[in-house]
């Protein structure tokens, strides 16, 4: 199980992609293929063309959605705490759990995504 975080430090935005199997694409190929992912956000077209995009790969325990949820939440919280906005609505499993960091709800930005 793998969670991919594609982020732009300049735009302070990110997307999360989940895969039950380890992604076989290189980071460069993944960034070139961002058009194949449907993210429901009005700012996604500008995000895809950002020159400073980077990919972070997080291995999550396969079959253990509870620990995967905590690990995913840890990485997501690190970005959101720095002011990043996650584009779109959450889609995928396991859903990152932010409650260990005291986050009970996220602030939704209509047609953009969510943040702290």
UniProtKB/TrEMBL annotation:
Superkingdom, taxonomy of origin: Bacteria
Entry protein name: Uncharacterized protein
Source organism of the structure: Vibrio marinisediminis
């Amino acid at each position: 199980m793998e969670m991919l975080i594609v982020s732009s430090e300049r735009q302070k935005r990110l997307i999360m992609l989940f895969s039950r199997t380890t992604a076989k694409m290189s980071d460069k190929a993944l960034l070139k293929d961002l058009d194949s992912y449907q993210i429901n956000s009005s700012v996604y077209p500008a995000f895809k063309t950002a020159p400073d995009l980077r990919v972070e790969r997080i291995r999550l325990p396969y079959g253990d959605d509870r620990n995967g949820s905590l690990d995913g939440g840890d990485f997501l919280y690190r970005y959101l705490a720095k002011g990043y906005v996650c584009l779109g609505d959450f889609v995928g499993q396991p859903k990152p759990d932010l409650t260990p960091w005291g986050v009970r709800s996220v602030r939704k930005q209509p047609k953009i995504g969510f943040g702290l």
